[in-house]
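Our preliminary data section would be incomplete without showing what the modeling component actually yields. Below, a chain of 341 amino acids is followed by its predicted structure, encoded as tokens that our downstream tools consume directly.
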Amino acid sequence: MKDLIANSIKYKSGTLTVLDQYLLPHQQHWHVCHDVAAMKDLILTLKIRGAPLIGLGACLLVAHLAEQGMSKEALADAIDELESTRPTAVNLMHCMTKLREALAKSDFVEEMVKTAEQLFNEDIALCDSMAEHGANLVLKGDNILTHCNTGALATAGIGTALGVIYKAQQRHGDIHVWVDETRPLLQGGRLTAFELECWQIPYTLICDNMAASLMAAGKVDKIFVGADRIAANGDFANKVGTYNLAVLAHFHNIPFYVVAPLTTLDTKTACGDDIEIEQRSPIEVRGVSGSFGEALWAPNNAQVYNPAFDVTPAKLVTGWVLDTGVYNQADIARGALRELK
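Predicted structure:
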């Protein structure tokens, strides 16, 4: 397989390495990933994260294992095992489906390698296209609010929602970003703030529950978020807390955009009610941990509800920014998403 290099994943000289996003922003450590067990652990512990990147990481590993001589049966098991790690994000399923198609061919090793390379390069192109379309919606001087992390750490390219912000800043040079810290795992505070600093884009970090008062004060012009799965009717699942922002934006009449590639679109899922929502460990809510150590603030036996995602109804979305263009409520109502796949 050719060398494939991105900000948080690298396949170079036959070795796959993954940047540990759990340790960011204060430590930058790369994990070597040789087998399925290692990749599963990286995914489940969010050392590799972001819907597009999870799919690509799993895909690169399986293609590498094919090149290393793993049997067809073992490769099929590896695909199944990796696909089961995260039930909500559809990008992983998309990548594994493509690998199954390659595995079914007589020259499966060559086909799997070619598929992995194509998906990696495709993601870079999709990010660029989304950024171009989305940047057209941003004006000079805009204050943009975003949630979770949707940048180059989460994709092979420049990102989804954060890629739009990056492109808009390149055009205007006068963009400010409000960054939700994104409880309980602080992807906004740890990762989005880190990327915006690297890109030298002005930002202000806020607690998630401060967004409403900012909107009421007229300090938010637009909201851009990513997605882990978009249903055929336009409902979408994203990091928990996204639905809150959509409701608040609707009340305050603030444009609310979701940014995602076609690989996040799942037309087999009719609506948001049909999206399986991953439930994560109660430890994530009872306290916090990271490169800084661990802190526990709740009782050890506190009952916890910890969905990783929530679902935002299509009726609350101003526009869907895809790599194929920007779609509004009228487009969705006439079935535009179904026509894309």
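DSSP finds twelve helices and 17 strands in the chain. The mean pLDDT is 96. Preliminary results of this kind motivate Aim 1 of the renewal.
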